[in-house]
Write a structure and sequence with these properties.
Structural class: alpha/beta
Shape: globular
Radius of gyration: 28 Å
Number of strands: 25
Largest sheet: 10 strands, mixed
Mean pLDDT: 95
Strand content: 5-15%
CATH topology of the largest domain: Rossmann fold
Bound molecules: pyridoxal-5'-phosphate
């Protein structure tokens, strides 16, 4: 490639013509990568294109900051342990409005943007839905021109990479920043010093007031790394601020001076461990000290940053909550409540009442789970060792809170015990959800059903005390990533039909409705779906060596592997179909390809067994000449955002089959429907609202409702043996796990499933829902066999999915909780 020397850099960066982009690209090949005349690899091309893109974003970021400052705008800080960003290049090019030009520019130079984009590694700084939600929110905030900033951890290792070994999941480290990331801007000048550990000295001040002093702490240094977030239309660039932990050289010096060289080095290593790795469980895991330190570390860094920014504006702290909103993405960052109190009381000398007034008006809390085992709690002794002053602050918050509870409900010690931030018992624990609710002015669930169950089943006492605090914000996903970028074929077709307003206003997709039965539109729609399925078929072949038929019905369940998500129910249905063919001589209505993907937490034995079972079933079924033309089963390894972007546009059927009352919302369900898959699902989470939107004839619902399940639990009226005895099809499926049908080489391997389901009560109601699920699948197959009918339904799913744009979600948060607006 020729190199061109560039004279006017600033002018170049605002030049979005193909010539301008070419110059910018070549400039970076030479001056950022130091290449001149050598062979240019795809990775080099990726790095140069990214730098070219980043230049444009930085200029816009400076402009955006000035706009907000001039308006003295209120800011939203979104605190989250996880941001599942995936790849950035394609998204940034689309949002900057230079995607097509960049494609052309590279083509002219003999390169291919598609290939270049493939060399970007995912930023997998999250486990699943919660982290991906945060990423979608950042996209929407920037697109809406709102001052919204993400705060999190710059994990050196993201979520593990999943590999398969003899059908078992194995985990490999994801050293995603090995070669650095072009999207992160290090800001050592904005470093924060964070004290941790130590003890309290119970002193009094000059006036004789109790004046506790936090002594003997270690210092952590938090170095921010900013990832610019460009909104669609390139008007606004916000940023995601991710902190890396470093040890403090100053403090180490003290130990050095004491002559303990090894202690100093150990201390240094320990500090740098804090941002080393993301915890790979998508629910809470008790008692890990490092995890508590991580939570504290990034929250404390965020608060330093937020208060510093506020102080620069020269206003008094009494106005803090008028200029700052802080959203807690689950309880992980809830230490921020204690930290802000500590700053105001200890450092700014505010009275407790004044500090509490500000704190409570600043914070808002999002709950993400209904699973009791996922509720975060920390043992008091551990807490005291790591954060002695924060524990004191929490005790004082709790003392005042319980006094209020006692005044509302005098003589009700049970209620005080239930509501206390501190759980009594042999091991005292800090309940982070209680701290979050007490310290916030808003508590929201993430789908209508979830918010209702929170109020009526989970935290009823709190709802009784503060009904006005509770609200719902149904989750959403960004159509820019999940339709425009992931499914360019469909995006183009839509834009040709109804224009491109849907990119910033997903309700405009409604304009597609009149074309749902149009034969030409249907045929174009089907052709695109087929292309997407061919693309996925290629990925499946590359990663599993199984060949699948793109003309078959693609039935996909892609999400974390979890008992409550019931991959096992899906498996049971597949086994049922297999046995109907080989034992009863039946034929399927339509050939099917069952596609699974998802990671299991490394310590989650049952989930890992499911993966092995799926792989074993795939081997048996795919190699059985009696069924191989009718059913294929594949497990696609290493589910992640970039794989989701290939899988979701290729789906005909989307499996959303959690036990009713267990899935808070789900967002995978929204992405699939947005890409024209029909949902087969339970009345759980946002499935209920998806049904309301797309119409009940365009979704396939089955199974027990949440209320029915609550009732059966309460009355202990569910006995899986009843279903086993009465239903021969269910019995046959269950017995297959008790034999070695799917584990000839590992005898007895899946017998535990038979036992757990039948003898341990089937906690997730698989057998209670199985027949209903089988029936639902038959309905789905009969409809799929009529392409015009199916395509109509698929198109209507796309047309009516507008509500589930994260733009709508963010507008509601902005108006009803944050009181921020676009600038
Ligand atoms: C959307 C998404 C999820 C969440 O899927 P659910 O079906 O809502 O659990 C998890 N992982 C990735 C990579 C995603 O993109």
């Amino acid at each position: 490639m020729p190199t061109i020397i560039v004279e006017d850099l600033a002018k170049l960066r605002s030049n979005s013509s193909i010539e301008g982009l070419t110059q910018s690209f070549l400039h970076h090949l030479k001056y950022s990568l130091g290449l001149n005349g050598q062979e240019v690899t795809t990775l080099d091309q990726y790095l140069a294109v990214s730098q070219m893109t980043r230049d444009r974003m930085i200029d816009l970021m400076v402009e955006t900051e000035k706009r907000y400052a001039d308006a003295n705008a209120k800011r939203l800080c979104y605190l989250s342990m996880e941001f599942l960003m995936g790849r950035s290049l394609g998204n940034n090019l689309h949002n900057l409005g230079i995607f097509d030009q960049t494609q052309e520019m590279l083509k002219n130079l003999g390169a291919d943007l598609e290939e270049v984009r493939e060399s970007e590694v995912d930023a997998a700084l999250g486990n699943g839905g919660l982290g991906r939600l945060a990423a979608c929110f950042l996209d929407s905030l920037a697109t809406l021109g709102m001052p919204g900033y993400g705060y999190g951890i710059n994990y050196e290792y993201g979520l593990f990479k999943q590999e398969m070994s003899n059908g078992h999941q194995t985990e490999k480290p994801d050293h995603w920043q090995e070669d650095g990331s072009p999207w992160l801007i290090e800001r050592p000048d904005e470093a924060c010093l964070i004290p941790v550990y130590g003890y309290i000295e119970h002193a009094t001040d000059r006036t004789g007031e109790y004046n506790p002093m936090w002594m003997g702490w270690n210092i952590l240094v938090g170095i921010p790394h900013d990832m610019p977030i460009v909104g669609y239309g390139a008007k606004t660039v916000n940023y995601l601020r991710l902190y890396s932990a470093q040890s403090s050289s100053d403090f180490d010096m003290e130990i050095f001076n004491e002559g303990d060289y090894f202690k100093a080095v150990e201390q240094k290593i320990k500090s740098e461990t804090i941002s080393k790795v993301l915890y790979p469980k998508d629910s809470f895991e008790a008692g890990r000290e490092l995890r508590l330190v991580q939570e504290y570390f990034f929250t404390a860094c965020a608060l330093r940053d937020i208060t510093r920014t506020f102080e620069r504006s020269g206003q008094s702290y009494d106005h803090f909550h008028e200029k700052t909103a802080i959203q807690l993405n689950d309880t992980h960052p809830s230490l921020a409540i204690a930290e802000l109190m500590r700053i105001l009381v200890d450092e700014k000398q505010f009275t407790w009442e004044r500090a509490w007034h500000i704190t409570q008006r600043t914070f808002a809390f999002t709950n993400h789970t209904l699973l009791p085992e996922a509720m975060e709690k920390w043992p008091v002794p551990l807490f005291e060792r790591v954060l002695p002053r924060h524990l004191q602050v929490i005790f004082e918050i709790n003392r005042r809170f319980l006094k209020k509870v006692a005044s509302i409900w005098p003589g009700d010690p049970d209620r005080q015990a239930r509501m206390s931030i501190i759980e009594e018992g042999p091991q005292k624990q800090v309940r982070m959800a209680h701290l979050s609710m007490v310290g916030s002015h808003s508590v929201n669930g993430v789908a209508e059903l979830h918010s209702k169950l929170l109020k009526t089943k989970v935290v009823t006492d709190f709802h009784e005390m503060w009904p006005e605090r509770f609200n719902n914000k149904t989750n959403g996903v960004t159509q820019r990533r999940w339709l425009l970028k992931a499914n360019p074929g469909l995006a183009d077709l839509i834009t040709k039909k109804i224009g491109d307003d849907w990119i910033v206003d997903a309700t405009k997709l409604k304009d597609l409705e009149p074309f749902a039965e149009d034969p030409d539109f249907q045929s174009a729609f089907r052709k695109i779906k087929l292309r997407n399925k061919e693309k996925l078929a290629q990925v499946i072949y590359d990663t599993t060596r199984y060949r699948v038929d793109p003309e078959s019905l693609f039935d996909i369940q892609a999400k974390r592997i979890h008992e409550y998500k019931r991959q096992l129910l899906n498996i049971m249905h597949i086994v049922h179909q297999y046995l109907c063919i080989v034992e009863d001589g039946e034929d399927l209505v339509v050939p099917r390809t069952y596609i699974f993907a998802g990671k299991a937490a490394p310590g989650y034995w049952a989930a890992k067994q499911y993966i092995k079972l799926i792989n074993n079933i795939a081997k048996v079924i795919n190699n059985d000449p009696r069924t191989r033309d009718q059913i294929r089963v594949v497990f696609v390894p290493n589910y992640r955002v970039s794989l989701a972007e290939v899988m979701i546009p290729a789906a005909d059927l989307s499996e959303q089959i959690s036990t009713a009352g267990k899935e808070a919302s789900g967002t995978g369900n929204m992405k699939f429907a947005m890409n024209g898959a029909l949902t087969i699902g339970t009345l759980d989470g946002a499935n209920i609202e998806i049904r309301e939107e797309v119409g009940e004839e365009n979704i396939i619902i089955f199974g027990l409702k949440a209320e029915e399940i609550y009732h059966m639990r309460a009355t202990q009226s569910y006995d899986p043996w009843d279903f086993f005895r009465r239903n021969t099809r269910i019995r046959r499926v269950m017995e297959s796990f008790n034999t070695d049908l799917f584990c000839a080489e590992e005898p007895g391997m899946f017998r535990w499933i038979f036992q757990t389901i039948l003898d341990q009560g089937d906690e997730y109601f698989h057998l209670a829902d199985l027949q209903s699920y089988i029936d639902a699948h038959r309905r789905a197959a009969r409809e799929y066999a009529r392409p015009d009918l199916w395509t109509r339904k698929a198109i209507l799913n796309v047309a009516r999915i507008g509500k589930f744009s994260s733009d709508r979600t963010i507008k509601q948060y902005a108006e009803e909780i944050w009181n921020i607006k676009g600038h």
